[in-house]
Amino acid sequence: MKQIPLHWRILIGMTAGIAFGVLLLTVFGKQTAEGFVVDWIEPFGLMFINALKVIAVPLVIASLIKGVSDLKDLSSLGSLGGRTVALYLMTTAVAVTLGLVIAMTVSPGKLISEPTRDALAADQQEEAAGKLDIANKQKEMGPLQPLVDLVPGNLFLAVTDNSSMLQVIVFVLFFGVGLLLVAPDKAKPVKDFFDGLNEVILKLIDLIMLAAPVGVFALMAALVAKTPSWDVFHSLLVYCLCVLGGLLLLIFAFYPVLIVVFTRRKYTSFFQGIIPAQLLAFSTSSSAATLPVTMERVEEHLGVDEEVASFVLPIGATVNMDG
Known about the structure:
mainly alpha, Proton glutamate symport protein
């Protein structure tokens, strides 16, 4: 199994998990199948995701500090940051436009019958009320509140929450700038520490990814076993096909143009290098869990400079989720 490329192992795990979930539903029925999968199968997938999430923040800290400290001067940081923000704004605008066009054209939510829609609304009422409350609080805040939220009031609290990754990035960038401004002999011990930490974390990623096929199998089996009624499933299937169609258009129509224009390299070589990270993102739906693998693939298999990857990717995983 070790001789099979990683992306094929992940794909095999996904396919086997879907087949296993369908088999359990067919043989034992929904209640028994869901109970068995939730108790005995899904925990392995959750452990896999948690293992990746737990090293996401240390990886961002170590790699970003290393990347910033490797820059020649602060002007390089400003130039890289400006180009990164411009690219992210452009790709996000394209993704949003494409998503709106597909959603307005297909309208997958209309496929759910009225009784099922009412039942789902009742089940999700508490969760929806919580989200509405958050949205209303956002409306009451001032126009500069998003800028205030970028600066962590408690670094340790931000580090323990993957949703506060942007706050961690802001602090780490600030720390890296400070490292650039002190004398080289004073900065060297700190830089060497984070260089070593970065290498250790990348090695941990390699070890965790050995369990990727099993983790993906468990996640996909749980997804299938916990599928609601056929009415909802049919609508979700259409919705999934819409999302997949949009993703395929981005991946095979839009991204190749960017790669050819900005890197002058063949898109096939890019896809071969990044596909394990893409499959992992598809199966886990977690940017935080996928980030460590993405950084490892980009640096070691696509030849991107570590100082660029460690700056661009953590920010992208936080604010540029085009999918």
